[in-house]
Design goal:
The protein is globular. The protein folds into 2 domains: 3-232, no CATH class; 245-373, no CATH class. The chain has 14 helices and 15 strands. Strand 14 (308-309) and strand 15 (312-313) form a beta hairpin. The strands form 4 sheets. Strands 1-11-10-9-8-2-3 form a 7-stranded mixed beta sheet. A 4-stranded antiparallel beta sheet has the order 7-6-13-12, with no helix packed on it. The protein has a two-stranded antiparallel ribbon with strand order 4-5. By secondary structure, the chain is α+β, with helices and mostly antiparallel strands. It binds iron/sulfur cluster (2 copies). One iron/sulfur cluster is lined by residues 272-275, 329, 342-348, 358.
């Protein structure tokens, strides 16, 4: 097999099952997008027919619909509510077991069992979101052991998008629709054929094992053209050129009140966001008072409790919380981590029950603040 066939192969649609078989033979639990209760959710799969063949998603602010098109496209859907986040940053992670012992307490750390999981169908925005989570949980001042164990077992098969949703704006964020990295293998779906490209030594090994022929220059060019067309078709964009200053200057803008009047503080936007990492801890003691479990749970800056510190709620109004979320996500995140906290997946727009759209809110909030528009400060 030539070097190029090790890194870029032509995988016929009919042979996609071979990829699943090879991954399972290597000991991975294979997880992919499946149709469940009217939405796309990650579930364990064994066969190609478990994937959402022929399904397509329609997403609008506050709306999500699946429809069957009758086509044989395997990855016609873009994404469901969950990104890759739960695979590494678990929604509930037991951390410690505390029990009475010898008149005092014994504390035992709880770590997840290592598991090899191959996730098929991650999008460019999902990969960009996971890279941000890695930066927070692995590459910062404190390495999170539970996250590291879960992350270590992941093998990721990405899929480049060839169809954009009306809510997508990854092209304007520079994160997609062509995946920038972070995958072991990446597929681009064409008619009856995939371009399969390896992104890691483990991915190259899998590509060699499924024994695909080298991709032709025509196939590579066609795949690239379809992804570029997808980028051009995106109707939303987020204007981030004036960040972080533009949003800092909008701190007292009256539009925050208008958004707050619509926001329900339900926290959906933060639960579906691939980059949000707020969490809390809870104790679960047994009824006998002998032992207690200390666990970490996803939390949201939209809840009353999250803003409660030392006898005072520092963000009592919904306006405070929405402003805090958007300003962190799009402005102070840049100073904290060197990137935007938004990867342009559009999930918070779709899954907001009242259809609040951060791209529109930002336009109003920063319209007069963005230097490119000619006036450095809003009124
Ligand atoms: S803020 Fe919204 S669009 Fe941006 S990454 Fe989070 S969920 Fe996706
Ligand atoms: S912006 Fe929408 S999803 Fe987020 S808390 Fe408010 S109502 Fe819920």
């Amino acid at each position: 097999m030539t070097r190029s066939s090790e890194t870029r192969g032509a995988l016929p649609l009919a042979d996609l099952q071979r990829l699943l078989d090879v991954l399972q033979a290597k000991g991975y639990r294979v997880v992919g997008p499946t149709v469940h209760d009217g939405a796309i959710v990650w579930e364990s799969i064994r066969r190609m027919s478990d994937l959402p063949v022929g399904w397509r998603d329609r997403q609008e602010p506050g709306q999500y619909r699946l429809e069957q098109t009758g086509s044989n496209h395997v990855f016609g859907i873009a994404h469901g509510p969950n990104s890759l986040k739960p695979f590494a940053f678990a929604p509930r992670e037991p951390l410690l077991q505390i029990e009475r012992a010898n008149g005092g307490f014994a504390v035992h750390s709880r770590l997840p069992q290592p598991e090899k999981i191959a996730v098929i169908g991650a999008r460019a925005c999902d990969l960009a979101g996971l890279a941000i989570q890695d930066q927070i949980f692995l590459n910062g001042a404190y390495r999170d052991t539970s996250y590291a164990i879960r992350r270590e077992g992941l093998f990721i098969v990405g899929v480049n998008c060839t169809r954009a949703l009306s809510t997508c704006f990854c092209a304007s964020m520079g994160t997609g629709p062509h995946a920038q990295g972070g995958y072991d293998l990446i597929l681009t779906e064409l008619d009856e054929m995939f371009l399969a490209e390896a992104g890691s030594p483990a991915g190259r090994e899998v590509l060699t094992d499924i024994a695909v022929p080298a991709a032709s220059a025509t196939l590579i060019a066609e795949a690239s053209a379809r992804v570029e067309a997808c980028a051009r078709s995106q109707v939303r964009r987020l204007e981030s050129s004036g960040m972080p200053q533009a949003l800092y200057e909008a701190h007292d803008h009256p539009h925050w009140d208008e958004v707050a009047a619509r926001c329900l503080a339900c926290a959906n936007c933060t639960m579906v966001c691939p980059t949000c990492f707020c969490h809390t801890v809870e104790e679960t003691p047994d009824l006998a008072g002998e032992r207690s479990e200390h666990a970490r749970l996803w939390d949201s800056c939209f809840t009353q409790e999250h803003g409660y510190i030392h006898g005072k709620n520092i963000r009592p109004a919904i306006k405070d919380r929405y402003r805090m979320w958007l300003t962190h996500k799009l402005a102070s995140w840049i100073e904290q981590f060197g990137t935007s906290g938004c990867v342009g997946c559009g999930r918070c727009i779709t899954w907001c029950p009242v259809g609040i759209d951060l791209t529109e809110e930002l336009q109003v909030l920063c319209k007069a603040s963005i230097p490119a528009k000619g006036n450095p400060k809003h009124a």
